[in-house]
Design a protein that fits this description.
alpha+beta, binds 3-methoxybenzoic acid, oxidoreductase, metal-binding, iron, Cytochrome P450
């Protein structure tokens, strides 16, 4: 008698969180997509991976079978103690998910953000003025775009909009870096952050109290929802915590992505300069192209057949958002940054009921910064190859040395 064993694709034995894959994920993603719609990832007990756009998209909208309540990291909250109290937005399913989401969505929605449009465009102009100092048309300014633009601009506007005090804001980026590492396995990246998490977390948690928050920010609006009874007084600080968790590092690396795209695609920069309304498409295509949030996990609520595999109840499935965003089954010439494509349908902000509630905030930050740069900078030149900052979840840059060539304002 002969038995046929399903061959485990070789890519399934690779550690997707190794420094090699984190540093250069595209070859791994291509092999994963080619191996099938869902692939066992044998480095981690009972883990599966999905890398094709159609399957990742379908799983993300299927919250009944691919749930978030057991955590969206490798750790299964039904078996292991989470490192912090679970997020009421990210790490929950309906019905618990719904009240916090319905409270937060309008606070961060396009209508509410109109109030910030003028101030943020002005802040971006000031930010770029400070950076370029007294350099004039025809001159060149050398910058590292990560600290000088991608990090400092969100840190200038976002914490004020939430309404937290100035003191201690240096905790925000390291807190986020650890949080995004902690969705992955407890590897070296997590170990490196572990000695300082408690301090960062204590500070972040303290900023979520109503007494600490200004009376006109996103934080106060969340507490006002608690006063109305839309969420409880126990939920309010955790909803504020979601802003401080998900709203900083993500936009930093989203801006890093769009600056990388524009520095390496001078034609795109020229088009944007002459039509600043393109900023939105430029940003979304950059989010697709770079996918700053690379991965999130789901947990199978029941046995789920996918292709000729059954993902067993209780299994974790790693959704490769960055891979879905580069799937040639969905995108023409996917590795190309291309302003003529329609990037909508990318899963860089996720998809379905957990899709990024802060995406309008991110787009406004990008639009403001790009408009301010476009008004002064004729050409962005890569001065040296960027360096990566490795994180278990985020595709991030540590540095991006650039030369900004100043011009006259575009006509
Ligand atoms: C949250 C949270 C944290 C990290 C990421 C995220 C991308 C949400 O605490 O709700 O969404």
């Amino acid at each position: 008698m002969t038995t046929t064993l399903r061959p485990v694709p070789a890519v399934g034995a690779v550690d997707p969180f190794s420094p090699e894959v984190l540093g250069d994920p595209l070859p791994f993603h291509a092999a994963l997509r080619d191996a099938g719609p869902v692939v066992p990832l044998s480095r981690y007990d009972g883990l599966y991976g999905m890398g094709r756009h159609a399957d990742v998209h379908a799983a993300l909208v299927d919250w009944q079978r691919f749930c978030s309540g057991a955590g969206v990291g490798l750790s299964n909250f039904r078996r292991e103690e989470p490192w912090r109290p679970p997020s009421l937005l990210l790490e929950t399913d309906p019905p618990h998910h719904d009240a916090p989401r319905h409270v937060l969505a309008p606070i961060l929605g396009p209508r509410a953000l109109r109030r910030l449009q003028g101030p943020w465009f002005a802040a971006a102009e000031e930010h770029v003025e400070d950076l370029l100092a007294d350099a004039g048309p025809g001159e060149t300014v050398a910058v590292d775009a990560m600290p000088a633009l991608a990090e400092s601009f969100p840190l200038r506007v976002f914490p004020d909009a939430v309404g937290i005090p100035r003191e201690g804001r240096e905790h925000l980026l390291p807190y986020g870096d650890h949080l995004f590492n902690a969705f992955g396995p407890s590897n070296e990246l997590v170990a490196k952050g572990a000695p300082h998490v408690a301090e960062h977390a204590a500070w972040v948690n303290a900023q979520c109290r109503r007494e600490v928050l200004s009376d006109d920010g996103f934080g106060a609006a969340i507490w006002a929802a608690a006063d109305r009874g839309d969420i409880t007084g126990e939920q309010a600080p955790l909803v504020v915590r979601s802003l401080l968790s998900a709203g900083v590092d993500t936009t930093v690396h989203g801006l890093g992505a769009v600056l990388r795209a524009l520095a390496t695609h001078p034609d795109a920069w020229a088009r944007l300069r002459h039509d600043p309304a393109l900023a939105r498409v430029v940003f979304d295509e950059a989010i697709r192209w770079e996918s700053p949030v690379q991965t999130f996990f789901r947990t199978a609520e029941v046995d789920v057949p996918v292709g000729d595999t059954v993902v067993p109840e209780g299994a974790k499935i790693l959704m490769f958002l960055g891979s879905a965003n580069h799937d040639p089954r969905r995108w023409t010439d996917p590795d190309r940054f291309d302003l003529t494509r329609d990037p909508s349908g990318h899963v860089g902000f996720g998809m379905g009921l957990h899709q990024c509630v802060g995406q309008h905030v991110a787009r406004l930050e990008a639009a403001a910064l790009l408009a301010a740069l476009a008004a002064r900078v004729e050409r962005i030149e890569v001065a040296a190859e960027p360096t990566r900052h490795l994180n278990n979840t985020m595709r991030a840059f540590a540095s991006q040395p650039m030369r900004l060539h100043l011009g006259q304002a575009p006509s």
